[in-house]
Amino acid sequence: MIIHLIDGTYELFRHFYGQRTFNKGKDKPFGAAAGVLNGILQMIDEGATHVGVATDHVIESFRNELWADYKTGAGMEKALVAQFHPLEKALVSMGVVVWPMVELEADDALASAAHLADADPRVQKVCIWTPDKDLAQCVRGDRVVQIDRRAKVIRNTEGIRKKFGVDPTLIPDLLALVGDSADGYPGISGIGKIGAVKLLNQYGPIEDFPEKVLGDKKELALLFKRLATLRTDEPLFSDVDELRWRGPSKEFAKLTEKTNEPRLLERANKLAARVVSS
User: Fold this and answer.
1) Is 205 among the domain residues?
2) For a Cys staple, 91 with which of 96, 110, 111, 254, CB 3.0–4.6 Å?
3) 3-state SS assignment for residue 101
4) 3-state SS class at 53
């Protein structure tokens, strides 16, 4: 079986701002969420059987306690924020497993799910659907891959090495050294990407750097590495078959009626009938 893990937060952002191109600023209250749901149904239509979606139920996480400037939900558009919880409820009623994260981030859920699925010998491949560079650390050979829809590429270990210059396991170290403006930490001053890649390929992880390399900045670098390192120990499921899609519940009919999205129900029911008969 192939396990598909989807970054629900990214997909919601993508659909929200993608629809802005056409709606002239008149955001449909459920528009972006409906876009995410249709995208997942499309994956199922194309053969996906086991699907899990991770969302940031709360934008802040334990990392905000480690670094005061770590990303928060400040500045996010209200019309976008208002669709997070409805999306989570819609996913559940559509029969899709969703992990709404509070203490951890959606990225941590994806990393934990990938770790759990990778450990199951029945799993042939784990596909993580997100362009987020943080998730590159989860890639393992050709078995756990990252799918970047935006760039239309599938990255295995070789692909990650080609894009970033280091192996997947060193992605947290790379981010720690160069920083991540999206997540709100600056990296180590004086070290750019080329220099960071050279250091990591020469010495390995930051812990193994000779003292002369970072000097009194090593502790800061290790803090940033902790921010960049995704958690893989969240017990999201005990059996990968919990991720098998079996169709929508009766609640989905009520939701699609309330949100005026009857095509979603029609599509989900049609796919469910096909799944049951196969």
Assistant:
1) yes
2) 96
3) strand
4) strand
